[in-house]
Design a protein that fits this description.
mainly alpha, two-stranded antiparallel ribbon, 4 helices, 2 strands, about 45% helix
């Protein structure tokens, strides 16, 4: 379970930036019933060595923030609970991270 908390405004901004759809299923999301997933699981924030190795292998750079918009996506509760703390295969992870990065500037303005 995530320790990161989001305000209603942050949740609404993420929901809107992704066109009110689940990142993983493309299905519609209701504002009062969606999760915000960390593409790279939040637990890696406390696994410094493993995170550094992962970030280096993905070419993320030192500024990557596990808790930042570049790692957060809206999804259905079922998709998030199925994913849990798993890492995606490298190509899938890069795909999702690239989409999240493209939404980051919009979310920072919100």
């Amino acid at each position: 379970m995530s320790t990161q908390k989001f305000s209603f405004e942050e949740r609404e901004a993420i929901w809107t930036a992704y066109d009110k759809k689940c990142m993983y299923t493309s299905g519609p999301l209701k504002i009062d019933n969606f999760h915000i997933d960390h593409i790279i699981p939040e637990e890696y924030a406390w696994k410094k060595i493993e995170f550094k190795e992962l970030a280096d292998s993905l070419g993320l750079g030192d500024g990557f923030n596990i808790f930042g918009f570049e790692n957060l996506v809206p999804c259905t509760p079922n998709a998030n609970l199925r994913k849990n703390g798993l890492l995606f295969e490298t190509n899938a992870m890069l795909f999702y991270l690239n989409i999240a990065q493209s939404k980051r500037s919009v979310l920072l303005k919100a």
